[in-house]
């Protein structure tokens, strides 16, 4: 079984993740990660529990995209037709392509948000520079005008 995840938005883009077997034993844990993959070999049948935790920054909501994959194992005594084996192999490959596409979509969203934020900062920095430039020009004109004024003392 494989669980892949990526935090797409919110806060510092980091979460805690852990995976437990049907008896509640911890099989894997990842702390403060923005993306991750955890693969295990399921030795028991049952319901496996996986959890995403946002305890360290509960103020910020997080958007998490995740996929869970399990391989269906066929016992050695079962006879599997070659076409069925190929279909399972193709289905597994198609699931991998789908996961990569979802990962790329989340990553593109993150990069787009970063680019828009940077663009906004550059815009306001340019506005501030223009205001400072006009203030300096106004001050220079005033100063030079007063410098060339003829002051008469009577």
TrEMBL record:
Pfam families, per database record: EMP24_GP25L
First-listed, main subcellular location of the protein, grouped into a coarse class: membrane
Any single Gene Ontology cellular-component annotation: membrane
Compartments reported by the entry: Endomembrane system; Membrane
Topological category with respect to the lipid bilayer: Single-pass membrane protein; Single-pass type I membrane protein
Entry superkingdom: Eukaryota
Entry keyword Membrane: yes
SMART domains cross-referenced by the UniProt entry: EMP24_GP25L (SM01190)
GOLD domain span: 1-70
InterPro entries with a match to the protein in the record: Emp24-like, GOLD_dom, GOLD_dom_sf
Residues that span the membrane, as ranges: 124-144
Keywords: Membrane, Signal, Transmembrane, Transmembrane helix
Family: Belongs to the EMP24/GP25L family.
Protein name, UniProt field: Copii-coated vesicle protein
Organism (species): Lentinula edodes
Lineage: Eukaryota, Fungi, Dikarya, Basidiomycota, Agaricomycotina
